[in-house]
Amino acid sequence: APAGVHAQLRAVQQGAAGHAEGDVVEGQQAHAAYVCAAAARRKGCPGGGVGLNAPQHLQDIPMATERTLSILKPDATRRNLTGKINAVFEGAGLRIVAQRRLHLSQQQAEAFYGAHRERGFFKDLVSFMVSGPVVVQVLEGADAIAQNRKVMGATNPANADAGTIRKLFAESIEANSVHGSDSPEAAAHEIGFFFAGTEIVG
Ligand code: IDP
Ligand code: MG
Hints:
By secondary structure, the chain is an alpha+beta fold. Helices cover 44% and strands 14% of the residues. The relative contact order is 0.16. The structure holds inosine-5'-diphosphate and magnesium ion.
């Protein structure tokens, strides 16, 4: 799980997990409990103490609704796969609440992938991303950031699980059909890179 989730899980184990049923859990602690209950149901909390042993009032808390930025990459638009890929998102409980097709400029692609500037594949990645149109979209749903990463599959399609978008459709580690934000901070930044708030309709 991402580091942020682990930090929040620790907060729960030290705090909210000790609460008795009916206790009012406030503020930061309540948020941590909320995240923890969701994480526990998905994959079990590390370190025990919570997860299936969590008090009933934590198990009943729903997963957080999130938004994440998704891009259907040029290899996907070239092969006319936008509908097929969107069907996988929708089948996985993700809702497309904003969507636009555009051709990225060199400058936009370099800025969007700025975090990868020092990596050996940066120039090739930028060339690929400007080689054809993309579809940028905001996906919304329970735990959308992690859920989308799961549905996308591993970066290299050779390592992607069966049924994931990259296993189904990717051509290569570079032309891997989809981008998805990898953290809440990245999601907020990447959604703002492409969309105004008024363009996102949940
Ligand atoms: P992610 O898309 O699964 O988050 P990142 O490591 O963030 O993977 O890399 C961003 C994108 O850069 C990948 O989706 C892929 O298109 C490309 N990429 C990553 N690693 C390689 C590589 O080793 N060779 C060529 N392209 C790569
Ligand atoms: Mg990434």
